[in-house]
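Appendix B, example 12.
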Amino acid sequence: MRLLINKLMKYGIHNSSFGIFKKFISLSGVQVLSYFVPIITIPLLLRAFGLELYGEYAFLYSVVSYFLLIVNYGFDISGIRNVSNCADNPLLLTEVFSKIIWSRLVIFLCVTLIMLVGQNIILPHGNDFIIIILLLGIFGQVITPNWFFIGLGKPSYLLISTIVAQALNLLFILLFIHDKSDYNYIFFINSFGLLLAGLIQMSIIYNKFKVRLTKISLRDISAQFKEGLPFFTSTIGVHLYKNNSIQFLKFSNLSYDVGIFSVLRKIFEALNSFNSVLSQAFISESILTHHSGKKKINPVIIKLFWVSLVSTLILSTTVFYFSPIIIYLVSGSFDTDLINGLRLMIFSLVIIGLNVPCVHFLISKRKEKYISLSVLSGAIVDFICLLIFVPIFKFKGAIYYVLVTELLTTIFL
């Protein structure tokens, strides 16, 4: 029996499937905390703020999310690839780390200037202090190097910062958010969580991996911007058709529909985190397998395709059947708009699941431009669909456009 166990352990250590499974478990923990803790807070915030004020909060963070996207710039993907390729070389690892962090700090300075100058547009009914608090959260995103740990194939380290940050977020919401007068506190709580997660991750990198922030040249920063540009354009396109609906509903004076769609979007993003986990668990293996072989489609990506297809079909069917219970647990009611909306939106989960292996294949072949073209085409279709569907169907129109955009983006890939 001992001999059998030793052989199984030896096989497991060197088998790529077992390594991917371990990464999947760690990343699942991170995603569960990152998405499902905010889901847990939805009924607390709805009870404290009401549906319309919650819609205002969701609208503001949909705007802030663009600035978070800008400071990321696409380094979350290019950084994973670069770290994976030099994981065994400490000097190169330090160089990659320094280039990305300095590049993000340069972008952060630009974002700070934009937010301070345009604060009356971003937050017309708020105060200057909230802008500073939001900037602290964005800075936290700048110094949060998830890409470093994923590229090394050690996502378990992400769990530490995620557990601490999300636990404190939930605790602070329970302690300090009770009614509409506490509205401004929620921005401090969210920014504190982002900043704390970044500080913990930087501490792990400095103390555990002995990686330091070193000087780099302006040419290095320029090279990083050039490398990350295709990923940035593709993520900007994805972000556009994820958040345009909230802004379009808001500008159409449909505050109730903003609240409904915001709740549905949070539930969907929590469920779609399964696709994110699969992507992050497989991506380093996809890159390394590509470098070790000349096959057009390597076995890791084929495996990813089948895992993604089967699992998203099962998940979508389950959610469709249990949607009334899910809505009740999240919102505290059996709201028919929320239930029907979730059942419509869940179909796009399978479509996104089919995107994942396609994107991995293109990244492994360094064909990022095709990803950008596909997503930007989807963003154009998104805008057209919003103009057609939202005025007629309101929040259901926003759901229809999600389905159409995801389907067309997958076809373009």
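Residues 1-15 have pLDDT under 50 and may be disordered. The radius of gyration is 21 Å.
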